[in-house]
């Protein structure tokens, strides 16, 4: 018979939604358990942090930074008078650095659990009737946890195509693409989304020929069209071969190569690559999560059904992050985790999806918050727009990073900011001016009247806000 332990809250999933919820609940005085199945690369030990920390956000940014340093050394430093002969990169060292960073943060989360007295269980958790979580632990012991409340934060997994099964050697997902032992000569990517563009950029900078096949006819359809247009132009300059409207139908591994067949809307085409990254999106990781008697329901798209407060309809059972509706973003999951922990404690908690920022960490970066022009047109909302290029910003010119722009969209009558869209250097940081302004119901006029330091990249935000009313100083209106 399994051991049973009682808790005020049991969280299934130790990713950025689950571990944050567990810590916040512990801060609020609850007795908390967190169940997580992720195994580290060092012998299968517990590796808290979920996909984001282990094989997503953090390791990909580490490799983006390494590859950017190498690219700048070999392509950009000459403009600064810096030369380096026969520059090389050791891919194994780069991957090792990435692993070291991941392990450091795994330990950081474990340390936070210890400091906040959160009990961690390493294994697969499943929810059953009466808020019982059965844990199939990796050490072979079965444990039962009884929670007054349960938060489901199981996250998501990569979608696998039936004709391109992962072998993590030739055909890889977001995990395998982080662990190549050397730079492939030819890398194929199915999907021009965040993972495809970021990891395509990493290996392109290191010398791979990268071909990205995107099924949709529009590039980055979720982003503002003006921002996407600028980004596409820059990516092509960098040598990323992005083919739109291309549907892949076959991927065969032959003699250490991957042979692809795809349609470009006219004819069948062939492509041969050494490695293939499949990055066509992610699905909720709900397999084995819900016992038949638990009462929690799934939507027709496989997400856990919740209301606007992340409640499943079953007493004491909540769900957050990638396994529920809304954007699959680590920071969205964290905010939901905090909100739910606070609601369980009787405090107010909410998250506004309209002010959740999006970022793609390519070069240049893309970031946005709020609505696009297309969305506003479809909704019949009158608006006005201000834009400003980084090419006219002194700091950007000094950095030799002039590609891109900032775009502010405001309501035509009230001037309230409805969206901010950016492409350029460090826009992953600049977008938060828009987030804060929108959270405080700010207007373009508010941003325009705030003094911005000179010379900074943030001046582009200031000038774009001024441009909404055609009064930008450093460009013709």
From TrEMBL:
It catalyses: N(6)-[(R)-dihydrolipoyl]-L-lysyl-[protein] + NAD(+) = N(6)-[(R)-lipoyl]-L-lysyl-[protein] + NADH + H(+). PROSITE patterns: PYRIDINE_REDOX_1. FAD binds at residues 61, 125, 322, 328-331. One of its GO terms (cellular component) is cytoplasm. It comes from the Bacteria. Coiled coil: none annotated. It is found in: Cytoplasm. Its main location: cytoplasm. Residues 356-465 form the Pyridine nucleotide-disulphide oxidoreductase dimerisation domain. It is an enzyme of class 1 (oxidoreductase). PANTHER family: DIHYDROLIPOYL DEHYDROGENASE, DISULFIDE OXIDOREDUCTASE. The active site is a redox-active disulfide bond. This is Dihydrolipoyl dehydrogenase.
């Amino acid at each position: 018979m399994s051991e049973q332990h009682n808790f005020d809250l049991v969280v299934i999933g130790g990713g950025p939604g689950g571990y944050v919820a567990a810590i916040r609940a512990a801060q609020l005085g609850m007795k908390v358990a967190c169940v997580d199945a992720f195994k580290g690369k060092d012998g299968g030990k517990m590796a808290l942090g979920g996909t984001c920390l282990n094989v997503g956000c953090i390791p990909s940014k580490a490799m983006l930074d390494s590859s950017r340093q190498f690219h700048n050394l070999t392509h950009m430093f000459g403009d600064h008078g810096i030369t380096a002969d026969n520059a090389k990169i050791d891919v194994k060292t780069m991957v090792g650095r990435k692993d070291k960073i991941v392990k450091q943060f795994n330990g950081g989360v474990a340390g936070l659990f210890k400091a906040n007295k959160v009990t961690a269980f390493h294994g697969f958790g499943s929810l059953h009737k009466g808020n019982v979580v059965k844990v199939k632990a990796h050490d072979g012991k079965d444990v039962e946890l009884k929670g007054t409340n349960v938060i489901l934060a199981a996250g998501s997994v990569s979608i696998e195509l039936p004709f391109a099964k992962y072998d993590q050697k030739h055909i890889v997902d977001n995990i395998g693409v982080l662990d190549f032992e050397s730079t492939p000569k030819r890398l194929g990517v199915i999907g021009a989304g965040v993972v495809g563009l970021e990891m395509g950029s990493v290996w392109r900078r290191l010398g791979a020929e990268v071909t990205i096949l995107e099924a949709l006819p529009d590039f980055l359809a979720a982003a503002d069209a003006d921002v996407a247009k600028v980004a596409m132009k820059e990516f092509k300059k960098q040598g990323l071969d992005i083919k739109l409207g291309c549907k892949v139908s076959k991927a065969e591994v032959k003699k250490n190569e991957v042979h692809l067949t795809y349609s470009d809307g006219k004819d069948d085409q062939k492509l041969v690559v050494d490695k293939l990254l499949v990055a066509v999106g992610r699905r909720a990781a709900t397999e084995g999560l819900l016992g038949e008697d638990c009462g929690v329901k799934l939507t027709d798209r496989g997400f856990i059904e919740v209301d606007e407060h992340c409640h499943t309809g079953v007493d004491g059972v909540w769900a957050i992050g990638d396994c529920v509706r809304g954007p699959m973003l680590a920071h969205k999951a964290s905010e939901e985790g905090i909100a739910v922990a606070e609601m369980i404690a009787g405090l107010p908690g909410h998250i506004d999806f309209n002010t959740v920022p999006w970022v793609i960490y390519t070069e240049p970066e893309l970031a946005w918050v709020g609505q696009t022009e297309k969305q506003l047109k479809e909704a019949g909302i009158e608006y006005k727009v201000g834009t400003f290029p980084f090419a006219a910003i002194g700091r950007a010119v000094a950095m030799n990073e002039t590609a891109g722009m900032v775009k502010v969209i405001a309501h035509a009558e009230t001037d309230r900011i409805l969206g901010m869209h950016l492409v350029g250097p460090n826009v992953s940081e600049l977008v938060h001016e828009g987030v804060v302004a929108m959270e405080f119901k700010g207007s373009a006029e508010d941003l325009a009247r705030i003094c911005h330091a000179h010379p900074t990249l943030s001046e582009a935000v200031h000038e774009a806000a001024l441009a909404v009313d055609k009064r930008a100083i450093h460009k013709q209106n």
